[in-house]
C-alpha cells in the first residue's frame, strides 16, 4: 500500500511475522518456542531458522490436504518478496522456499505439490532455487527493471 509519498511500506525483519501469525494462529506455538529459545538474541533473531520450521509446518499442512492455509501462508510470502526489505526478501527465498524444497518431512506428498499453489513472485523464486541447486545459477533477480 503506498504511503503519502507514493512509496510502498517496506516490510522489515521486526514486522515480517505479524501477518503470518494473524492468518495462521496455530503457528504461534512454534513462534513462541522460537522466541523463547533465542531470547538472549532477541534483537537479532535468526528468522531463517524459523522459516525452516515454517516449511516443516507447511509440509504437515500439505500432507493434511490443508491447501487453503498453505495458500494463505504463501500469500504472506508473496508480500515478503514484493514488499520486503533485502533481509526479508532473502529470508523468504533462502529460508522458506528453499526449505520447502529441501527440508520436506512429509510422507505422502512431494514438495512439487506446492508449485500449483505458488503466487507469481514465489513461483519465480521457486524456479531460481531449483536452478541454483541443479546448475549453480545465482540467486539473483535476472529480470529487467521496468
Q: Determine Rg (CA atoms, Å).
A: 15 Å
Work out the strand percent. Answer: under 5%
Number of helices: 6
Mean pLDDT across the residues is 88
Distance between the termini: 19 Å
Envelope shape = globular
Q: What's the number of structural domains?
A: 1
Q: Which parts are unreliable, with pLDDT below 50 for 5 consecutive residues or more?
A: 1-6
- What share of residues is helical? 55-70%
Domain DUF7674: 19-133
Pfam families: DUF7674
Protein name: DUF7674 domain-containing protein
Overview of the molecule:
With 146 residues, the protein is mainly α. It has one domain. Helices cover 57% and strands 0% of the residues. The protein has helices spanning 18-23, 28-37, 47-63, 67-83, 86-102, 120-135. Helix 3 packs across helix 5 (86-102) and helix 5 (86-102) crosses helix 6. The longest helix has 17 residues, at 47-63. The two termini are 19 Å apart.
Concise summary:
The chain is an all-alpha fold.
